[in-house]
């Protein structure tokens, strides 16, 4: 017996209904791509995981690459929305940065499947101009968001003068690296502890605290 179902055609499906179906497909793609990798995952497996019919999948996504790209955009958008609402105006710059990174820590376990497909994403980025543009778009967006907070801290005197964009890029590079290490080495990496320690060092550096002098 075939357990998959195809949604009935509708000329004017509700916006919520379409969004729910699209998210259902994306959730299935996240599971399949993180378990088997992009190239090893078949359309039939995506259909089976979603519980929808193949016709429904193709109504939302033209092909597997389109689905993969949409998955990256969907996940990054969801994370970006949470991170952008993590702080209040009353917080100091350091408190805002901690609040942003806390979103990452709170969702750490959910990030592991995403970090698995990130390996595929980066590998394909080397060969695909479209992948490169997508990667640069999201990297620039997050970098600018964090750099704006750092620049505000510099303007208020909370942080010492630094290149805010370079500092933001450096912190995200560390977060990515630790996340990937956790993905590859599993329980051997203390993800929250490592990130919290790194963040302490990062903020101390911005404040000019804890300078080391070799004698």
Q: Helices and strands, in N-to-C order? A: HHHHHHHHH
What is the CATH homology-level superfamily of the largest domain?
Tetracycline Repressor, domain 2
Q: Structural class of the secondary structure composition?
A: mainly alpha
> Which residues form runs of ≥5 with pLDDT under 50?
1-13, 211-215
Whole-number mean pLDDT: 83
* Helical percentage: over 70%
End-to-end span in angstroms? Answer: 76 Å
Label the overall shape.
Answer: elongated
The beta-strand count equals: 0
The gyration radius over C-alpha positions equals 20 Å
CATH fold-level label of the largest domain: Tetracycline Repressor, domain 2
Helix segment tally: 9
Proportion of residues in β-strands:
under 5%
> What is the CATH class of the largest domain?
Mainly Alpha
**CATH architecture level-2 label of the largest domain:** Orthogonal Bundle
| Largest sheet entry | none
Into how many domains do the coordinates divide? 2
What does this structure look like?
By secondary structure, the protein is an all-alpha fold. The protein folds into two domains: 61 residues, Arc Repressor Mutant, subunit A (Orthogonal Bundle); 139 residues, Tetracycline Repressor, domain 2, CATH 1.10.357.10. It contains nine helices and no strands.
């Amino acid at each position: 017996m075939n357990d998959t179902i195809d949604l009935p055609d509708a000329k004017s499906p509700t916006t919520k209904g379409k969004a729910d179906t699209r998210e259902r497909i994306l959730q299935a793609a996240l599971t399949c791509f993180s378990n088997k990798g992009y190239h090893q995952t078949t359309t039939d497996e995506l259909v089976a995981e979603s519980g929808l019919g193949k016709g429904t999948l193709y109504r939302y996504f033209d092909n597997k690459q389109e689905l993969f790209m949409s998955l990256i955009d969907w996940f990054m958008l969801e994370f970006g929305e949470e991170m952008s609402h993590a702080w209040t105006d009353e917080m100091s710059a350091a408190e805002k940065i901690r609040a942003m990174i806390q979103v990452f820590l709170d969702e750490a376990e959910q990030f592991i499947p995403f970090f698995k497909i990130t390996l595929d994403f980066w590998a394909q980025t080397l060969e695909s101009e479209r992948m490169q543009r997508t990667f640069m778009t999201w990297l620039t967006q997050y970098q600018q968001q964090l750099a704006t907070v750092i620049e505000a801290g510099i303007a208020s005197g909370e942080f010492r003068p630094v290149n805010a964009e370079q500092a933001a890029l450096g912190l995200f590079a560390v977060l990515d690296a630790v996340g990937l290490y956790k993905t590859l080495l599993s329980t051997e990496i203390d993800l929250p502890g490592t990130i919290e320690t790194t963040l302490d060092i990062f903020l101390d550096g911005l404040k000019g605290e804890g300078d080391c002098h070799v004698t």
